[in-house]
Design goal:
A hairpin with a 2-residue loop joins strand 1 and strand 2. It is built from eight helices and eight strands; from the N terminus they run αββαααβαββββαβαα. The strands form two sheets. It has a six-stranded antiparallel sheet with strand order 3-8-4-5-6-7. The protein has a two-stranded antiparallel sheet with strand order 1-2. With 228 residues, it is α+β, with helices and mostly antiparallel strands. It is globular, with a radius of gyration of 18 Å.
Length: 228
Amino acid sequence: MNQSDPAYCGVTTLVVVLNALSVDPNVRWKGGWRYFGDEGFLLSRCCMNEEHIQRVGITMDEFYQLATCQGVNVTMTRWTEDSVTTGLDDFRQVVQTTFSSSFTSSNTQLLVVSFSRASLGQTGDGHFSPLAAYHAPTDSVLVWDVARFKYPPYWTSLSQLYDAMQPQDETTHQSRGWYVLSSLSKEELQEEHRRPAKLVPLANEPDICPLGKVKVQFCKASHYKVSE
């Protein structure tokens, strides 16, 4: 999937993850298919300001809030100066564990990284992307870049990617890091605990649920203040 706006890397990455985890958007894409067709599916029912995101993108905390609001389990970890060496080992352990268990565990986990492109010799700076694979012999990871108009998926060493998390975000003045995301177990997903299609609105249609506006109003992300 290619991000539809230069500032949408975080939102597009989350859309890729939500579809990979079979998260129900409670919106029908076409017919009876419930699928995050693009970033608009996510942002149209989100309490965050779309125009603001188009201008400056999202921070690590905002990505965490957006993912949490979609019912995804999220663990966020930042690069820290106190664990330059052990932190790399911790990151490697997370990567190895995630990719060794993703297809054997009943609870699929996915990895997302937030890093500085400049540290990898690329154009631009802060960026989000999912990780697609780990190659143990070379200690490398496959970055599934969502800015396909700039870079196709590429391999990079784990240590280089970890170092690319160190530069601080100009907005938060904090280093970047990674996320582990998971959803319901495969057994629960197979049971299809979903509303009938006739009760699920099509994209761009009003929410049929009478509590839709209330859910947005009291969404945790709505209380997260974004500095203009």
